[in-house]
Design goal:
The chain is of the alpha+beta class. The protein contains five helices and five strands, in the order βαββαααββα. Keywords: Mitochondrion.
Length: 167
């Protein structure tokens, strides 16, 4: 019986990526639901969940880190080998130093392109936009009072992308 289950869903053509993630995590199961064009990568054992927590630890930049810290506490209580995971703080490194921002934008961003055509069908005006939005605060499930505002990371992204403050 699984105490915990983490699931990542992929389109079937991305099965090699799911396989690679299984190799890195050293665990997991791929499930192909009947009559579907997707697959689920499931992590249900403590060893795999622990490996995921270790990989994420210290690489999170948002208040969602609180959820990872709760998972680490849960894993540490269940540790049978005496090895504990030490909770690392938010990643405050330069946004251009790793691919975190590209994944964040991929997940929560939108790109738009607008253009006007002249009578010959050629573009005369091209406008491109990027939108990135987050809830103002991360809703924690604990009663511990913490700074759960997403303002800090959104402001760091604004500075990194050289966007002016809009008031």
């Amino acid at each position: 019986m699984a105490l915990f289950c983490s699931k990542i869903t992929f389109v079937k053509k991305d099965a090699p990526l799911a396989q690679k993630i299984m190799e890195v995590i050293k665990g997991g199961t791929i499930v192909y639901p009947k009559d579907s064009n997707y697959l689920d990568l499931l992590f249900q054992d403590i060893k795999s969940i622990r490996n995921i927590a270790v990989l994420l630890n210290g690489n999170i930049r948002t208040p969602k880190m609180e959820a990872l810290h709760r998972l680490i506490d849960w894993l540490n209580v269940r540790s049978t080998d005496g090895l504990k995971i030490y909770k690392l703080s938010l990643d405050n490194s330069w946004l251009g130093s790793n691919p975190w921002l590209s994944g964040f934008i991929e997940s929560d961003g939108k790109f738009y392109c607008e253009f006007k055509l002249n009578s010959e069908g050629k573009a005369t005006l091209i406008k491109s936009y990027m939108r990135l939005s987050q809830k103002q605060s991360y809703k924690s499930t604990t009663t511990i009072s913490k700074n759960n505002s997403n303002f800090y990371i959104m402001d760091k992204i604004r500075e990194f992308l050289d966007v002016k403050n809009v008031t």
